[in-house]
Amino acid sequence: MRVTVLGAGSSAGTPVIGCQCAVCHSDNPKNKRSRCSSLITMDDGTNILIDTSPDFKMQAMRESIDKIDAVLYTHHHADHCHGMDDLRAYCQKYKKAIPIFANQNTMSELKLKFQYAIREETKFWETPVLHAQIVNQLFNIGSHEVIPLPVIHGRMEILGYRIGRFAYITDVSEIPDSTLELLQGIDTLMLDCLRFEPHFSHYGFKQSLAMAEKINPKRTFLIHMTHDIEYDAVSDSLPEHVFLAYDGLKLQINN
Fold first, then answer.
1. Residue 85 has what DSSP assignment?
2. How many helices and strands in the chain, by DSSP H and E?
3. Sequence-distant (≥ 6) Cβ neighbours of residue 3 within 8 angstroms
4. CATH classification for the domain delimited by 2-249, as one of 3.40.50.300, 3.40.630.30, 3.10.20.310, 3.60.15.10
5. Full-prediction pTM beyond 0.85?
6. 200-225: per-residue pLDDT in tens?
7. Is the separation of the CB atoms in 185 and 206 below 8 Å?
8. In this protein, which residues make up the domain named Cytochrome c (predicted)?
């Protein structure tokens, strides 16, 4: 399968509005980070989206995403779901509802925010038509197995996801031992790394590196980064097999 990083940035994106720092004014395109989301394209062409960031339309056009077959939601915070309305284009094009997957708490919050979109289809396609699927254990999207990965984000339990030997964990402050067991044997990990300083609901830089070492995949890509992290300088300081993700990064993953 192929994983495309649609956005590697945190809730404000980079550049940050009104900021005069060197990273926000950098000419390096790898320092331009839209809000966090990724696309998984399976070998049969199935497109599985992780989160719909507020920048999803721009990301979808940049990557020429022709269809979305399912969406995995990690949680309901604005930077991970407020691009949901742009799924409308795919529902209109194919006259087909899109299933969305989340845990109970996330789905309840999404229904409050997007009641108009999470509904049964009618003869009209003027809004997204999304079918809610609450998950707490292994499930399938077509023939593809997806394992939810419960993690802690501040005081809230949210989900990462594992498909084959790939795992995606954003917005995390704690990974329970039971979830670490589900991560055994992965080859590629995408992992939250908000900034250098610790944060009550996210991994900081040292925590991310420590967890990457503990899980020990063949390669780890850090995501959900603020303008605190300058691509070239930080990349030069990373241990072997740990990398900074960037918008547009494409990874081939053998399962």
1. G
2. 7, 14
3. 38, 39, 40, 41, 166, 188, 190, 250, 251, 253
4. 3.60.15.10
5. yes
6. 999 999 999 999 999 999 999 999 99
7. no
8. 8-121
